[in-house]
């Protein structure tokens, strides 16, 4: 099998004959082709002998064309590359009419590229983002596998609406125009595919807990959905979530796991995605040129290295409220939501302040029970729960987790308080009835992680085909 | 951090003090606890000194209870284990009332266990299946990663209904009882979340092709859906699919990839899931005891080794039809669908016959264009397409793939023939317009693979929470 461009540039087998296939990025002076095959952000230089090339062929060598080229790999005399192929055999496999091809070698806006998401992976920026996304996903699987976690596929279509993590998409095969009705005139879901009303999952956590109570350590990595009309640069209607769940772990062990995990996967990209990160780093620098110096972000790889090198600051909610209450932006009423008293829900502006205040990733823990989900472990103070959120520079919350309420009676009581039907979740309650134990887990929105690592600013640009209100193209 | 039971049984650190946490499988003679933590199918023997144990505590040591135990790890004098812990400190973390706990140490039917899928992962059989499922998933990611493929998350919610791979689930947030209507009285999807009608994906292939035309080698591994009312042991409404797609690969390279890939992941389980496979192998043997000898399957690991060791037989559709037409079951009219002439669609009975005939996994290729999808590469004979199906002993089709039609005009023609709206798939056509090239890929239903490797007979038993007609529990 022939070598990829990544292999050729790494191994530099000078003096060998190589055959490569890829897409023309640029063609200059009728002589130098920059060829990409997507295996790396770098292009391979092909030198063609235009005097001996048929003119018809020469014309077809245009940006975006697919070609096959063969020749000797030699040291390059030119700047910018160590090796190049001196082409003796060239074939254009698929043309690309320069009048029509939307991706010309110039800067395109992110908005324009979103409209042609079917082609944008061919650009430097999206190629880099997609390769880093791959490496992050691989690092996730590899991390958990080596720590003896089992990958659990929790259901996507769910009959339970209990977690209350957000608005849900309904899944149905009923005729929308003439749906079957019950005698009372309601939709007769017994006629639907699953003989009940079903939705797309908002989280695999409850099912992951079932796995953890059997296999001790499990994790999910699958799509989750929110039918929320949030047209922001931070929200997707369809996104991928990672949810580890560990039996016998308390909240401290949970924090240890989350911190170690995040550092590992970020370190992995620093070690394995150098070229792509370098490109995105200079892209970001270029983007921010027009900003005043104080508003510019630090160099991408330095930001990542900082997270890897430093302990996350663990701060209780109560302590955080104190800090926020006495902060300048609170006193000067610069926060949109002023912090008056204990119990307030933290907004993204507060999270950002805290990260800046500590100049480190922050783990907030022990939140008021009232602002967190029913399944979180109630502390002895009966006011707070063993919840944690991890806040990252620039993007705010990246991880949310908790120790779970393992006491049957307390959990039942909480479900009642939250108005959750016990019958709906009898299977969940069963785990507290039979061999219950302390256990904990967390959720990480994968796109938030990709956003952080790539330094991109809009979450629609870190997933191949984003789903947002009004948009389900491709 | 404390060692898992798997670690303890492998490393045997005799003479050290160990603390373990897990669930009681059995407790006999008031003395021997078989403890499971799910890390392995094996249990760890704990020896308790019942004379010095409080009676209240002793009573709570029941099947299913969660416990923490500490003591010295010593060589075991008893049969069945090398090491055991002599417990000096024991705590019951979560009780399990034997009167209520459904999983008692006896044989339960698969049907019963399906009803309590929230607990069944605690059994030997489902623990083994879930661990093997994990290892297979890991092997998939690891295989493609090492071959420089990029993992691509193709969309789950899709606005296009073009592939025609099967019935789809509708995704909507419209009020079913009072849906918004257009002036013509139709459902007004412009008011829906995505401002158009959307469904759950049946395949990520078309989007994977977009990835391959930019990054050369990509694969998907995500959930796919079929709203088909198939209540069989081979069908799920929600299942996970793996779809690699490679630019510049023709059908032969595609077959090579599929064969190498399947052998790799199966070999991986033979090397890494020995204990679980051994258990499932004897389980299967036990299950088939009552069958006449000739109907019994070969030992599980031998079956897997056979696939790893042997070349898959590559047979053209035309040759296969000849074989089937002249076969005994065809002549004696024992097939439900008799094979009369070239062009017939192959049924599962024919696929099974071919696998037996060749006594090997079979790759069928070059199918009639009429019975295959529009995107498959038309051969020069203009009658057949470069499709391939891989047939495995016992389960029939496990992989379906093809070389894709890379010629713009031919593809457009095929879309017209198949009644597919060009405007719906203009993005797909664009890849044939700009830098098109030969490319190929295939799809593998992950649960079919788990079914094959584990020797289970019902596909509902190889996914944690199966979705089938009338069933979306948990």
TrEMBL record, chains A, B:
Gene Ontology BP terms: asparaginyl-tRNA aminoacylation
This protein's name: Asparagine--tRNA ligase
Record organism: Croceimicrobium hydrocarbonivorans
Alphabetical list of PANTHER family matching this protein: ASPARAGINE--TRNA LIGASE, MITOCHONDRIAL-RELATED (PTHR22594:SF34), ASPARTYL/LYSYL-TRNA SYNTHETASE (PTHR22594)
PROSITE patterns linked: AA_TRNA_LIGASE_II
Family the UniProt entry places it in: Belongs to the class-II aminoacyl-tRNA synthetase family.
Enzyme class, spelled out: ligase
InterPro entries in the cross-refs: Aa-tRNA-synt_II, aa-tRNA-synth_II, aa-tRNA-synth_II/BPL/LPL, Asn-tRNA-ligase, Asp/Asn-tRNA-synth_IIb, NA-bd_OB-fold, NA-bd_OB_tRNA
A GO cellular component annotation in the UniProt record: cytoplasm
Major subcellular site: cytoplasm
């Amino acid at each position: 099998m022939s070598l990829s461009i990544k292999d050729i540039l790494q191994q530099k087998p000078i003096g060998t004959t190589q055959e490569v296939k890829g897409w023309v990025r640029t063609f200059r002076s009728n002589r130098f082709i920059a060829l990409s095959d997507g295996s790396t952000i770098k292009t391979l230089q092909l030198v063609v002998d235009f005097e001996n090339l048929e003119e018809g062929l020469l014309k077809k060598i245009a940006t975006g064309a697919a070609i096959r080229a063969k020749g000797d790999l030699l040291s390059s005399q030119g700047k910018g590359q160590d090796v190049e192929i001196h082409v003796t055999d060239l074939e254009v496999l698929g043309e690309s009419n320069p009048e029509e091809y939307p991706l010309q070698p110039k800067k395109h806006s992110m908005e324009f590229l979103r409209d042609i998401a079917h082609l944008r992976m061919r650009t430097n920026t999206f190629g880099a983002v997609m390769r880093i996304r791959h490496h992050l996903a691989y690092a996730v699987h590899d991390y958990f596998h080596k720590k003896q976690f089992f990958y659990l596929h929790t259901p996507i279509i769910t009959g339970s609406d209990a977690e209350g993590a957000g608005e849900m998409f309904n899944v149905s095969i009923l005729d929308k125009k003439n749906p079957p009705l019950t005698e009372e005139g309601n939709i007769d879901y017994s006629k639907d595919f699953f003989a009940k009303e079903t939705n797309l999952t908002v989280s695999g956590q409850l099912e992951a807990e079932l796995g953890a109570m059997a296999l001790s350590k499990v994790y999910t990595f699958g799509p989750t959905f929110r039918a929320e009309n949030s047209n922001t640069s931070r929200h997707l209607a369809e996104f991928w979530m990672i949810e580890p769940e560990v039996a016998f772990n308390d909240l401290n062990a949970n924090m240890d796991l989350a911190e170690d995990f995040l550092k590992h996967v970020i370190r992995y990209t620093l070690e394995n995605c150098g070229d792509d990160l370098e490109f995105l780093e200079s892209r970001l620098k270029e983007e921010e040129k027009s900003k005043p110096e104080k508003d510019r972000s630090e160099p991408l790889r330095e930001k990542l290295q900082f997270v890897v090198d430093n302990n996350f600051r663990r701060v209780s909610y109560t302590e955080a409220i104190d800090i926020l209450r006495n902060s300048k932006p609170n006193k000067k009423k610069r926060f949109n939501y002023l912090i008056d008293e204990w119990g307030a829900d933290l907004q993204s502006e507060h999270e950002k302040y805290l990260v800046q205040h500590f100049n480190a990733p922050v783990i907030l823990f022990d939140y008021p029970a009232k602002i967190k989900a029913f399944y979180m472990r109630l502390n002895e103070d009966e006011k707070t729960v063993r919840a944690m959120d991890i806040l990252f520079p620039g993007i705010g919350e990246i991880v949310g987790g908790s120790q779970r309420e393992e006491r049957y009676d307390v959990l039942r009581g909480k479900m009642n308080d939250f108005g959750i039907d016990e019958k709906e979740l009898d299977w969940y309650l069963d785990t507290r009835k039979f061999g219950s134990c302390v256990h904990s887990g967390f959720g990480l929105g994968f796109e938030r992680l990709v956003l952080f690592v790539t330094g991109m600013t809009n979450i629609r640009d870190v997933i191949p085909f984003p789903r947002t209100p009004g948009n389900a193209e491709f």
